[in-house]
Specification:
4 helices
Length: 120
């Protein structure tokens, strides 16, 4: 390699490396746009509580076999567990369907959440 070919090769490599930036059409010094936020609003705590009661009531009323979970394994508070027991007893005694169970679960969760809004 001659003395002049070394710098020529370096310049050629730099020119080729700069091609994608030049072809992109944007200002290489311009900041990239900020990504859109990916957080979603927190769920309504009464709806979340009722969803848990409806799920576990459905499992228990259907007689789904499985381990005998205590309320902590189910992710319930003791207040939710008490409400679940009452809900299941009433559903069995009165033959409630899913819509009635959901409405009663929602009603049962309102005072639970009001008493402990930080718990949800």
């Amino acid at each position: 390699m001659s003395r002049t070919s070394g710098p020529a090769v370096v310049l050629a490599v730099l020119a080729v490396a700069a091609l994608p930036v030049a072809c992109a059409g944007g200002d290489p010094a311009a900041p990239a746009p900020a990504p859109a936020p990916t957080t979603s609003p927190a769920p309504d705590p009464v709806v979340a509580c009722a969803g848990q009661l409806v799920y576990w009531a459905g499992q228990d009323l259907a007689g789904v076999p499985g381990e005998a979970y205590d309320y902590q394994h189910r992710g319930l508070t003791s207040e939710q567990n008490d409400a679940l027991r009452v809900l299941e007893e009433q559903a069995r005694a009165q033959g409630w369907g899913p819509d009635r169970i959901a409405a009663q679960a929602h009603a049962a969760c309102e005072p639970i959440v009001a008493a402990n809004p930080q718990g949800f």
